Structures are given as structure tokens and as C-alpha cells.
């Protein structure tokens, strides 16, 4: 997009020039030469000493020979970068300062909010402050978990034996097993004898015993 800042009176104010240059630097996210800035914005830094001095003192701009590079307050390129910055911060950070970056930081903020790692509060002046949620307990590393599951736990009898061998009292007295012998009473079996009284079926060879 081309703007003629030298011809339109509404863009002659220094703040407008500075805002336009900062926006251009963030859009490209790389060092821009004076000639590239002049070509894009029609602002000749070599001819405007006052603007040049103001930009040179701006902490968000890094000068290298005849190039300008936007330097954000926080270098955030990923959600991990944002988490590290928030973890090391002493207190909350202004949301606008985090968003003032050549990279879209908003998705990283949303991701950490979803994971409950950060939270955003509104101040009395309606500015939003981002805080790190330091109430979350860190979980053990996967290597530690794997090592824990490889440790075998001895059974009770072996544990008592090992403690006794080492001269350590377990504090638990092993109960002696008591065996009770239960005598089974013998039940006499009676063989029932059937006497054939029906003599008329005696000759049929039927075993009725």
C-alpha cells in the first residue's frame, strides 16, 4: 500500500510517520532499508533529521547502518516462548505489550489460557494484565514415570525377611497361623434290604435289592 506522506497534510505529523514506519516494520518482520521505507511510505529518512533522531531513540527500533528493524519488548515466536516469559515474570504483564509483536501472539495466549497456565485480569483503567498461573503442580517427567513402574515391590513375606536380615524391625508382628483340626463325625450307612413279598413276580428275575 502506497501513502504519500509528503503531500498529504494529515500525515505530516511526526507521530503519524512513526506509527506508519512501525507498522511497516512489523508487517515485514525483517530489517528494511531507508530506500524500502521511502518506496513503501514515501518517507525519506535521509531528508528528515528530526524524524531520524526520534526513530533512533525509539527502543522498539534497531538501527543497523541504513536499515531499521522492529524490536518487540518480548520476543515471542511460539506458545513455549510466551510460557517461559510469563513464568519468569515478576507479576503480571500488559496484554498490549505482549501483542505488540510482528508475530500474532493471540493464538499463543488462547492456547495457554485453555491449558490453564495463564489468566487475564482487567485493571481499574480497563487495561488487561496477563498473569502466570503458578498454582499448577508440575508432573513428573516421562523418564521418571517409566523408572517408577519398573521397580518391583517384594511380597510381604520377603519384605519381612529382608528387614530382619538388615536388622530393621518392621513394627508389624506377623500373626501365627492357628490350625484347628475339625474331626468329621462318621455317619453310619445302613444298607436297606427289601424283602420280596409279592411272590407272584418272584419268577420274573427282577433284582430288587
Automatic annotation (TrEMBL):
Cross-referenced Pfam families? TFA2_Winged_2, TFIIE_beta
Coiled-coil positions: none
Q: Specify the signal sequence span.
A: none
Q: Which GO terms describe its molecular function?
A: DNA binding; TFIIH-class transcription factor complex binding
Specify where it is mainly localized: nucleus
For this record, the Gene Ontology CC terms, alphabetical, are: transcription factor TFIIE complex
Q: Which UniProt keywords apply?
A: DNA-binding, Nucleus, Transcription, Transcription regulation
InterPro entries the UniProt entry points to? TFA2_Winged_2, TFIIE-bsu, TFIIE_bsu_DNA-bd
Q: Where in the cell is it found?
A: Nucleus
User: What Gene Ontology biological process does one annotation of this record name?
Assistant: transcription initiation at RNA polymerase II promoter
TFIIE beta domain span:
1-77
What is the role of this chain?
Recruits TFIIH to the initiation complex and stimulates the RNA polymerase II C-terminal domain kinase and DNA-dependent ATPase activities of TFIIH. Both TFIIH and TFIIE are required for promoter clearance by RNA polymerase.
Task: Specify the protein name.
Answer: Beta subunit of transcription factor IIE
Organism of origin: Hamiltosporidium magnivora
Amino acid at each position: 500500500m502506497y501513502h504519500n506522506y509528503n503531500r498529504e497534510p494529515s500525515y505530516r505529523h511526526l507521530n503519524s510517520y512513526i506509527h506508519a514506519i512501525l507498522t511497516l516494520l512489523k508487517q515485514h518482520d525483517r530489517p528494511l532499508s531507508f530506500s524500502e521505507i521511502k518506496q513503501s511510505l514515501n518517507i525519506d529518512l535521509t531528508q528528515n533529521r528530526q524524524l531520524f533522531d526520534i526513530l533512533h531513540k525509539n527502543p522498539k527500533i534497531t538501527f543497523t547502518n541504513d536499515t531499521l528493524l522492529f524490536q518487540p519488548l518480548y520476543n515471542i515466536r511460539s506458545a513455549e516462548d510466551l510460557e517461559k516469559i510469563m513464568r519468569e515474570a515478576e507479576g503480571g504483564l500488559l496484554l498490549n505489550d505482549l501483542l505488540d509483536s510482528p508475530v500474532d501472539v493471540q493464538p499463543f495466549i488462547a492456547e495457554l489460557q485453555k491449558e490453564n497456565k495463564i489468566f487475564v485480569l482487567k485493571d481499574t483503567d480497563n487495561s488487561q494484565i496477563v498473569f502466570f498461573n503458578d498454582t499448577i503442580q508440575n508432573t513428573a517427567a516421562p523418564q521418571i514415570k517409566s523408572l517408577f513402574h519398573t521397580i518391583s515391590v517384594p511380597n510381604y513375606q520377603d519384605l519381612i525377611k529382608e528387614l530382619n536380615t538388615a536388622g530393621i524391625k518392621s513394627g508389624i508382628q506377623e500373626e501365627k497361623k492357628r490350625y484347628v483340626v475339625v474331626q468329621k463325625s462318621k455317619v453310619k450307612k445302613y444298607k436297606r434290604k427289601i424283602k420280596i413279598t409279592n411272590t407272584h413276580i418272584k419268577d420274573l428275575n427282577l433284582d430288587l435289592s
